[in-house]
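Hey Z.,

So I finally got round to the LGQLAAA5 thing we talked about over coffee. Here's the setup:
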Amino acid sequence: MNDIRVKICGLSRAEDVAACAEAGAAYGGFVFFPKSPRAVTPEQARALALEAPVGLAKVALVVNADDALLDAVTATVPLDMLQLHGSETPERVTEVRARYGLPVMKAVGVATEDDLPKLGLYAQVADQLLIDAKPAPGAELPGGNGLSFDWRLIAGRRWPRPWMLAGGLTPENVGEAIRMTGAAQVDVSSGVESAPGVKDAGRIADFIAAAKADPVPRL
Ligand SMILES: O=C(O)c1ccccc1N[C@@H]1O[C@H](COP(=O)(O)O)[C@@H](O)[C@H]1O
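And the result:
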């Protein structure tokens, strides 16, 4: 077994939190984006976060959130990290880190080689990077679409911050994704669901077991 750290995103029921804890997830994500089928209110997330064991880091995912939303989320939910999953600028990342005193993970969408310089840019201001597939033009959601990118684009590349691989990961392909990219952390949402927004405990366990199964080449 390796020491890959897994984030399960889009938790909305107590049994999802229990499944993550049972299977050994390192992070659990709550989505504060109304268009998402996984969206929760700050009060719902608070109740879920209070159920989480100490070892499960609680992450709030927001998309181009203003201070009013972030104030409400951070005042209500006990959190370990903020995930900015919209088109937040490097300046906004810096502002959010300073205002809330929480580590910030910035999601960057990748489709082609041209998207890679943004990773270096955000590595200068964020605590962690989340490397996700770039959504199709006009997509309703900027993430959580079950869409992968070409993992060869980041094979062998490194950044001066911890980073997570995301986008279209499933129990079936996560081992291959880790082998190709050398990721030490992976993030999944729709790949461990039985229907949009409905997490499946069996798929969560299968995903984490598959992610942790092989020795990881640190490229
Ligand atoms: O999960 C969502 O609903 C979501 C909504 C808005 C922005 C991001 C969202 N999810 C994040 O996207 C990645 C990839 O999702 P998937 O595994 O391809 O379905 C996921 O890990 C979340 O961090």
